[in-house]
Amino acid sequence: MKVRTLDDFDLAGKTIYLRVDMNCPIDPLTGDIIGTKRIEEVAETLHTMKDSKVVLVSHQGRVGNSDYIGMNKHAVVLERMLNRKVKYVQDVIGVAAHNTIKDLEDGDILLLDNLRLCAEENYEFTPHNAAKTIMVQRLAKLFDLCVLDSFPSAHRSHPSIVGFPQVMPACAGRIAEREIRNLNEIMTVAKAPHVVVLGGAKVPDRLEAIRLLIQNGRADHILLTGVIGNVFMRAQGRIRYPLGIKFEDDVVRKAHRLIGEYPDVFSTPVDVAVRENDTRLEMDVRKLVEGEQIVDVGPKTVEHYSKIISSAGTVFISGPAGNFEMEGFDVGTRDLLRAVSKSMATTIVSGGHLTAALKKYGMDAHINHISTAGGALVLYLTGAKLPMIQALESASERLSTA
Ligand code: 3PG
Q1: Does the Cβ of 375 fall within 6 Å of ligand 1?
Q2: Are 340 and 347 in contact (CB under 8 A)?
């Protein structure tokens, strides 16, 4: 590995900036955390820092979305998991955060509030400019070491990720270390045909990655489900009414262009499940009418996709096939995961939702690599250099030449 790890530093007595990714699924009605896998993982790195003053920082959701909440609930969950006090301050770069960090003692853990409360964290910067942000200028001087462990957001050039390693020693935390090592190993044995099963709702991000996956020989077949599946069906003219999603015209146009350029790569659902009076109703895509809420793929689609998965050399699956948290609408997600777990291919399961589903169905043991990262992992597989990994490599080089 070209990056430093926690083993390269003496951590005792140090004040550590620990950038994690505790961005969890949130119930839109109650605002409660409904999947805690990413918080569970943070505990792994914290175990190596028992004699340090640790300041955890993370984002949660995107400004304006229903999952954009403060970090107080995360502190409670983490405290319960660690069985150790986790302090929380409702601040990121202000006086309250500053004073609380200054007052920490060895063995203390503090969680700051949602990083995206700070405007700068909602923009991408070059590492050089990220180091000049008010966030980095104010906070960096309080720390001895920057530990980057937010692999699920490794594709973001935000100040909390690329700014701090510019101005202080930096290394990967245990999650990032494990992800980078395992993925490097997997990529050396991954073989064709490469089958990518893509679902979920972050459509603009996915569209960008799809082109790179195809161009770089990482996707021979792309099997679409979830909101992105709906977008492609709309682009094919198989759904004939607006989906009512953000940036709809733009994403449908991009999907249309991709289908035109790579006509043999994409498969879209032949049947879906819709929700009517809280019950699951399966239907052929041709029978869909405006207003119908698509919540899963249907059995014919699962059968068709499973055949392609069974003859793959490598399978990468990311994003649920539908609203899998809802009773009765997890069938597509479960059955596709089952097909992946039975396949003889090298298998990678990605994203918070699917890792939670795998655990729920007891299929974890049959998968080669399981990662809570979604978009970051898709981009990694395209061969793109992720900003967080680049930042860690540069920080390591700087230490070697110092
Ligand atoms: C994720 O869940 O993919 C990461 O936490 C990054 O979140 P973002 O897509 O809102 O930057």
Answers
A1: yes
A2: yes
Q: How far is residue 72 from each of residues 76, 91, 121, 190, 204, measured CA to CA in Å?
A: 7, 11, 19, 41, 30
Radius of gyration of the chain from its Cα atoms, rounded to whole angstroms: 22
Q: Of all protein residues, whose CA lies closest to atom 11 belonging to ligand 1?
A: 153
pLDDT digits (tens, 9 = 90+) for 209-265: 999 999 999 999 999 999 999 999 999 999 999 999 999 999 999 999 999 999 999
Phi and psi of 391, rounded to 5°? -65, -40
Q: What is the pLDDT of residues 371-399, one digit of tens each?
A: 999 999 999 999 999 999 999 999 999 99
Tokens read off for 62: 């995107």
Closest ligand 1 atom to the C-alpha of 23? Answer: 5
Q: What is the pLDDT of residue 1?
A: 67
**In the structure encoding, which two tokens stand for residue 302, read together?**
């699962």
Task: Report CA(208)–ligand 1 centroid distance (Å).
Answer: 15
The model's pTM:
0.92
Q: What angle do CA 16, 22, 24 make, to 5 degrees?
A: 175
Whether 374 lines ligand 1, by a CB cut-off of 6 Å, is yes
- Per-residue pLDDT reduced to its tens digit, 163-197: 999 999 999 999 999 999 999 999 898 999 999 99
Alpha carbon distance 173, 374 (integer Å): 18
Contacts of 389 (CB under 8 A, 6+ apart): 3, 154, 180
